[in-house]
Write a structure and sequence with these properties.
The chain is 24% helix and 21% strand. It has three helices and seven strands; from the N terminus they run E-H-E-E-E-E-E-H-E-H.
């Protein structure tokens, strides 16, 4: 059985390190899922709490979604300061591949601004 087991955590500069912490910790330790980080590029991202996190994948290099269970976009200060058109295109591709997208706080503003929530149910 081929199981989707990769959880992507999409990080931006000044991301909110606490917002996805419980979900990724439990998934990474107590399930068959593995959490991987993804960003615009592979340079480390620094959170609002000053955690410097290495990035596993660049969105330009992540082309096969067959092993992707979900992508999580934690909030952060940079979502409202940037258009992130390149991230929007990546989210469009991942959505078209039927991968669920979870956004928290400021990342929901990003999804709204790019029209992702116009025709789907969301909370």
């Amino acid at each position: 059985m081929n199981r989707k087991n990769e959880i992507l955590l999409l990080l931006t500069d000044r991301w909110c390190d606490w917002e996805a912490s419980y979900a990724i910790a439990v998934a990474n330790v107590f399930s068959d899922y593995v959490v991987k980080t993804i960003a615009l590029d592979t340079s480390p991202k620094v959170s609002m709490g000053n955690l410097c996190v290495n990035i596993d994948y660049s969105i330009d290099d992540y082309l096969n979604f067959s092993n992707t269970a979900i992508i999580i976009l934690p909030g952060g200060l940079s979502w409202e300061e940037n258009d992130y058109d390149k991230i929007a295109e990546f989210i469009r591709r991942i959505s078209n591949a039927s991968v669920p997208v979870a956004a928290i706080c400021g990342a929901t503003t990003f999804l709204c601004r790019h029209g992702f929530l116009n025709d789907i149910k969301h909370t």
